[in-house]
Amino acid sequence: MTLEYKPITKLSDLPEENLFTSGHRLCAGCGPAIVARLTLLATQEKPIVVNATGCLEVGSTLYPYSSWKVPWVHVTFENAAAVASGIVEALNKLASEGKTKEAPVIAIGGDGGTFDIGIQAISGALERGHKFLYICYDNEAYQNTGIQRSGATPFGAATTTSPAGRVIPGKQERKKDLIGIVLGHHIPYAATATIAYYRDYINKVRKALSYNGPTFIHVLAPCTLGWRYDPSKTVEISRLAVETKFFPIYEVENGSLKINFRVPKPKPVEEYLKTQGRFAHLFKPENRHLIEEIQKNVDENWARLERIEKAGPIF
Amino acid sequence: MSFNKSWKEMEIGAVVKGGSGLLYKTGNWRSEKPIIDYTKCINCLICWALCPDSAILRKGNKVEVNYDYCKGCGICANECPTKAINMEKEEV
Ligand code: SF4
Ligand code: SF4
User: Checking DSSP bridges between strand A133-138 and strand A105-110, what pairing results, if any?
Assistant: First the structure.
């Protein structure tokens, strides 16, 4: 189902009802819970939500409770996109026969269910062109099973499977370019977002649901447990990720990239890293050079995005 | 809903009622309590939008904390642009 794009200008434009209810068992200060909440505030029509295994699913639907006041289905880690594809096509068929009404379909998965385990089903669904929105809430590790590294964990972050110590100073590999991967499927809309820029995120959800084709949003959602910071700082840290250019906010519409926040006076990446225990080891004298390396990667990534933006449509 | 059912009596697919999360109160997780100073609040709704526990409610022209569910994370106090929310120690 395609909805007309109606951006909000202020929060009072949103409906009052909480479709993502209280009573869930996600941690106090949980970033992914804010993603779920903002997503359901954003959708103008009640969506059908397909949720891959992950923090959000585990924490919001402990049997016999559910915090989702919309049709919602849990599927295993690897196949949220496949199940969403099936729902979209079944709805199309039934609606064409007048047996049901149409509804937007949203698949939502964490970074484990998206970057790693679900990538094959996502690739299939994007290539087949089903009309749905996939949202990856990225808290940068398998947090609810005990903070194991994923393909989304950034370089240098300590997790239980990339612990910082005498052998390695945190994760040795860089984060996958998820938007790069999904753009390889020529989809009409892909974007990054984070919860501190809630209006931007809400409007991106609305815009994505107005496109006739698969769409994708990658939203950074800090995790108080795994990133090791005070729960009150969840939104502040997601803002710092943008202000240091660590996590650039951009969208790609029909192949044209646009950086949504230009960050005229970027803060040094240290300002972001120092807020989180998972990066604390980088501030030891012997690891300081890694901060420089991270800064270099951040600057190069930004320059790369600017080049793509300037060059015009990539497909 | 009851925990006394055997697996044979459960509905196929473990279907539960949407929004039944409300039956489980999380307010006792809290060690600090957000208090809104209405002389400073400008009803911008930022705390309402960003509370991970949907524990800030819009009541007419006012926001109110729902202490049945607030876990005391302090995000509302941290993000309030007018510093209208204070976190106070919870009495035990
Ligand atoms: S964020 Fe602060 S000013 Fe805005 S509605 Fe909440 S208490 Fe009021
Ligand atoms: S302290 Fe946290 S849970 Fe409580 S109302 Fe504020 S944001 Fe919501």
Answer: parallel
Domain ranges of chain A: 11-311
Q: Is the CB of B75 under 6 A from ligand 2?
A: yes
pLDDT in tens, A290-301: 999 999 999 999
CATH class, B27-89 region: alpha beta
In CATH terms, the superfamily for domain A11-311 is Thiamin diphosphate (ThDP)-binding fold, Pyr/PP domains (3.40.50.970)
**pLDDT (tens digit, 9 = 90+) per residue, A205-226?**
999 999 988 999 999 999 999 9
Interface test with B, best of A17, A18, A22, A219 (most B CBs within 10 A): A22
Query: Domain boundaries in chain B?
Result: 27-89
The DSSP secondary structure of A187-199, one letter per residue, reads -SEEEEEEGGGHH
Chain B CB contacts of A76 below 8 Å: none
**Does ligand 1 lie within 6 Å of residue B82's CB atom?**
yes
